[in-house]
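Q: Please design a sequence for this.
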């Protein structure tokens, strides 16, 4: 069956810089040998926190995972690129969209969008209380 979620991309997004690139190792696999979804979720959380912490000019805490979709499996040896963009800010919170692409470890250099997620981070102080975002 063919659907929009299964369409492979031939290149990484143009004019965008990945906030994180990483290659999963065998220790990151599930019992079937493919990459464990929880490992991908932790990497997405790290990737999303990068623009959030920049906007907050300091520490942030993840308060919510609003949406998370695994669109294609991830394999050991894929080169993953994480693209993160702020989609909303509030008084203390920053909501970030994260997209993950995999360069398969194949000679044809296939690129596939594997994951999409939206997470909300809250700017926190040294006592882990929420604090207002700095005014730009
Ligand atoms: C982050 C934390 C300090 C916020 O506490 P708080 O200030 O009392 O929380 P509030 O209810 O006032 O919400 C703060 C902001 O988060 C937003 N928020 C809270 N829950 C949310 C949710 N489920 N989805 C989206 N945004 C949410 C609020 O809308 C608010 O945003 P705004 O200030 O921009 O309007 C607290 O929830 C906490 O410590 N959570 C644990 C964080 C953590 O440890 N994360 C790591 C994973 S274990």
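A: Design:
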């Amino acid at each position: 069956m063919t659907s929009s979620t299964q369409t492979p991309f031939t290149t990484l997004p143009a004019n965008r810089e990945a906030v994180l690139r990483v290659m999963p190792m065998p220790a990151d696999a599930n019992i079937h040998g493919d990459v464990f979804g929880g490992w991908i979720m932790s990497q997405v959380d790290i990737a999303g926190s990068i623009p959030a912490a920049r906007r907050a000019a300091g520490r942030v805490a993840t308060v919510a995972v609003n949406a998370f979709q695994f669109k294609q499996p991830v394999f050991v040896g894929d080169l993953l690129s994480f693209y993160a963009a702020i989609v909303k800010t509030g008084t203390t919170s920053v909501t970030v969209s994260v997209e993950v692409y995999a360069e398969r470890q194949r000679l044809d250099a296939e690129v596939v969008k594997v994951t999409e997620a939206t997470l909300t981070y809250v700017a926190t102080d040294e006592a882990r209380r929420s604090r207002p975002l700095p005014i730009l």
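Q: Thanks. Anything notable?
A: The first strand starts at residue 20 and ends at 22. The pocket of coenzyme A is lined by residues 61-64, 90-93, 120, 122, 124, 128-130 (CB under 6 Å).
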